[in-house]
Amino acid sequence: MALTGCGPAGGVRVETAAASGDGTLRIGLILDNTGKQGFLNAPQLAAAKLAVKEINAAGGHKGRPVELLPETISEDTVAQAKALVAAKADAVIGPTDSGRAPGAIDVLSNAKIAMISPANTASGLSSYKSNGYYFRTSAADIAQGSVLVKLARDGGAATVAVVYEEGSYGKDVSNAVAAAAKAAGLGPVTVAEFKPGQAQQAAAAANAAGPDAVVLIARDGAQGAIAELNNLGLAGKKLILSDGAVDQYGSGLGSRALDGARGILPGIFASAHFQGELVSVGPGLRDMTFAAETYDAVNLAVIAAAAAEDDAGTSIASKLIAVSGGKAQPAGGAQSSGEAAVCRSYKECLDTVRAGKRPDYDGESGRINFDSNGDVTSAHYVVYSFGADNKATMSGSETASSGGS
Predict the structure, then answer these.
(1) Cβ burial 371-382 (10 Å sphere, 16+ → b, else e)
(2) Does residue 167 contact residue 195 with C-beta atoms inside 8 Å?
(3) Is 57 exposed, middle or buried (0-12, 13-18, 19+ CB in 10 A)?
(4) Rounded Cα distance, 181 and 187, in Å
(5) Residue 103 and residue 96: Cα distance in Å, rounded?
(6) Any bridge partners for residue 73, and if so which?
(7) Which of 20, 115, 191, 346 matches a 20 to 30 Å C-alpha distance to 249?
(8) Is the pLDDT of residue 337 over 90?
(9) SS3 of 91, please?
């Protein structure tokens, strides 16, 4: 995916804003998952409903209920964004797909509506021109670089080869892995690129280097690449998989091909309590992907409105860094005013605002701490280990900075 329209960081994120809301805070959703990815809509919708339910139970915004606008599901994020502008949304949560984010950003930033994606990971979005209206509660793809290297080191590796699928995802993450490996003293690092279905040459290049571990960075071409690496004896315990390559492969690969391999997926495993609360508003919910990030996005938007004492999108965007615990300094100094106090719910954060302190919201997805690009500064990952059946089970967690260190 190529992202254009790069611009400077900051914008309204670090500026003061005059109150301009109409007194009713409206939250919109962009749900853009269809086909095989359709299962991703339910946890995001349940999380948004749960957050708004709790917020309104705590008094809503300035005594009025926060409205969650009716949702639609469509890959046309531009049309969804335009509909939410017409519905007078003040903040919008979504979309999921990074490739469909720019169109929505263009519409919503032009309408001065704050936008927080719970799932966008493309690195280029950090510098996409939004005039400061765009944020995300998920980390950029490159953040996983240091975690993948740590897994290799934890497995005893002193040398690493990187095999990556062509495209911006593979290139960006492979560069992050190579840099992290060099910083960790693992080297020299062999890096080989492949096209989906054509990984044989890249696997051979990795094998020729004789590495202790191989980091595979891929999405569509992951299964074929694993098969080629396995043919050369570079799978199993030697293999580390990026988030795009983790899947329940089972019989789709040769016997024990992934036995002992490890990989990561972004996020924090939802607590039993949080899962129970989600199911209470979304009966039958089975998948929790992006639920924590969505829940936190809604809470952050409403906490920012409380801190600004205004429901307008510009006011919300101007306070999101401060209420997330971020350190970016605004032109007028308003972001960092007041003693900071960590809070873990809307009610607790609202009490902090009323006490004259600056709320620092740490939610279900962990610490947020937005920077001047609207990015989280901490990235959380769940570690998975593969068994002899080529299926993955959760085995741990790791945290890195959003820059991958």
Answers:
(1) bbbbbbbbbbbb
(2) no
(3) exposed
(4) 7
(5) 13
(6) 31
(7) 191
(8) no
(9) strand
Separation between Cα atoms, residue 256 and residue 236, nearest integer Å: 7
d(CA 386, CA 323): 39
Q: Name, in order, each residue with C-beta under 8 angstroms of 82's C-beta and a sequence gap of 6 or more.
A: 107
> Cα–Cα distance between 375 and 373 in angstroms, integer?
5
| Residue 328 scores a pLDDT above 70 | no
User: What is the number of other CB atoms lying within 10 angstroms of the CB of residue 271?
Assistant: 11
Answer whether 159's CB lies under 8 Å from 153's CB: no
Give CA–CA dist 114/307, Å, rounded: 15
**Contact between 262 and 151 (Cβ < 8 Å):** yes
How many of the other CB atoms lie within 10 Å of CB of 47? 32
Q: How far apart are CA 4 and CA 31, in angstroms?
A: 23
115 in Cβ contact with 85 (< 8 Å) = no
Distance (Å, rounded) from C-alpha 292 to C-alpha 43? 9
Closest C-alpha among 177, 116, 127 to residue 150 = 177
Rg for the chain, CA atoms, rounded: 22
Separation in Å, CA 90 to CA 53, 193, 372 = 18, 43, 20
Helix (H, G, I), strand (E, B) or coil at 241: strand
* Alpha-carbon span 42 to 62, nearest angstrom: 29
How far apart are the C-alpha atoms of 2 and 206, rounded to whole Å?
Answer: 28
Flag whether pLDDT at 319 surpasses 90.
yes
Query: Over the stretch 185-230, which tens digit does the pLDDT of each residue have?
Result: 998 899 999 999 999 999 999 999 999 999 999 999 999 999 999 9
* pLDDT tens, residue by residue, 149-192: 999 999 999 999 999 999 999 999 999 999 999 999 998 899 99
* Torsion from C-alpha of 352, 353, 359, 363, nearest 10 degrees: 70
| Contacts of 335 by beta carbon, 8 Å cutoff, 6+ apart | 14, 318, 319, 321, 322, 326, 328, 329
Who's near 8: CB < 8 A, 6+ residues apart? none
Q: Provide the token pair at 268.
A: 């924090």
> 320 by DSSP, 3-state: which?
helix
Residues in the chain: 405
For tokens 């897994």, name the residue: 151
Tens digits of residue pLDDT in 15-68 = 888 888 999 999 999 999 999 899 999 999 999 999 999 999 999 999 999 999
pTM for the predicted model, two decimal places: 0.89
